[in-house]
């Protein structure tokens, strides 16, 4: 199947499939002399695994590590996916029940305790990631997460202010050309800021930018600073990575 046929079959964009190829996550079985990507049934099976992991909140870098692990077993992964999805469904059912009870509480039909109002919420961690790490191995916890968790309250506040400040500055210039000097100076500040928290190669930085538009959760959060900011950052980060990788 050609890339457009796969995109239509699965319901994702051609651009996403191109990105998966570029980062080595899903490499087509063949690329013709004319440059057309051709996907095999094996490629489609791998894509299914990728999308299952994505649905469960795994970043693309983590998915690549898992499916390329020598110990990765597709049948075992499907069994784990099923378990994870059932657990996710149970959590969503609890949250739906909380919504229903909250509506009744607002109407005065029932009384909810403060604890009940937050039943089903869990932002502490990805409950599925540790089991995947245990099954297929993983690196240490990301440096960025570790640094943030070790910060004092005042340090976290400063971090958040700088983080939001960069987003606000980029939002102001989001209608300029991504390759412009102004855009590239702003994106450079973002790149340097990220590397104070973790270790982002230029390739990883470009991939992160692509995730800003591929993952609607990122898009929604980023575009709160200005509509179209996620796409602008994606394009500007790609330009920055390409220009500085020469």
Automatic annotation (TrEMBL):
Please give the superkingdom of this protein's source. Answer: Bacteria
Q: Which organism is it from?
A: Lederbergia wuyishanensis
Q: Name one GO molecular function term.
A: DNA binding
Tagged with keyword Transit peptide: no
Q: Which residues form the signal peptide?
A: none
Pfam families tied to this protein: MerR_1 (PF13411), TipAS (PF07739)
* Entry-linked InterPro entries: DNA-bd_dom_put_sf (IPR009061), MerR-type_HTH_dom (IPR000551), MerR_fam (IPR047057), TipA-like_antibiotic-bd (IPR036244), TipAS_dom (IPR012925)
Is Lipid metabolism one of the keywords? Answer: no
Q: Any idea which UniProt keywords this protein has?
A: Activator, DNA-binding, Transcription, Transcription regulation
| Domain HTH merR-type: from-to ranges | 1-69
Q: What is this protein called?
A: DNA-binding transcriptional MerR regulator
Lineage, highest ranks first:
Bacteria, Bacillati, Bacillota, Bacilli, Bacillales
């Amino acid at each position: 199947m050609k890339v457009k046929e796969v995109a239509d079959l699965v319901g994702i964009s051609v651009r996403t499939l191109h990105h998966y190829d570029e980062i080595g996550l899903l490499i087509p079985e063949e690329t013709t002399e004319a440059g057309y990507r051709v996907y095999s049934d094996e490629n489609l099976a791998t894509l299914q695994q990728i999308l299952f992991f994505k649905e469960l909140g795994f970043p693309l870098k983590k998915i690549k590590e898992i499916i390329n692990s020598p110990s990765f077993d597709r049948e075992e992964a499907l069994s784990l996916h099923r378990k994870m999805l059932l657990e996710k469904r149970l959590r969503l059912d609890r949250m739906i029940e909380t919504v229903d009870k909250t509506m009744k509480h607002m109407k005065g039909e029932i009384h909810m305790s403060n604890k009940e109002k937050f039943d089903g919420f869990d932002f502490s961690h990805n409950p599925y990631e540790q089991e995947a790490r245990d099954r297929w191995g993983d690196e240490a916890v990301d440096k960025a997460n570790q640094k943030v968790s070790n910060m004092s309250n005042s340090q976290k506040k400063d971090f958040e202010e700088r983080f939001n400040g960069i987003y606000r500055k980029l939002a102001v210039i989001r209608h300029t050309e991504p390759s412009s000097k102004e855009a590239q100076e702003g994106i450079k500040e973002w790149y340097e800021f990220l590397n104070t928290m973790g270790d982002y190669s230029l390739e990883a930085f470009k991939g992160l930018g692509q995730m800003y538009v591929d993952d609607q959760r990122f898009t929604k959060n980023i575009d709160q600073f200005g509509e179209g900011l996620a796409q602008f950052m994606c394009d500007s980060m790609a330009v920055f990575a390409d220009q500085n990788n020469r």
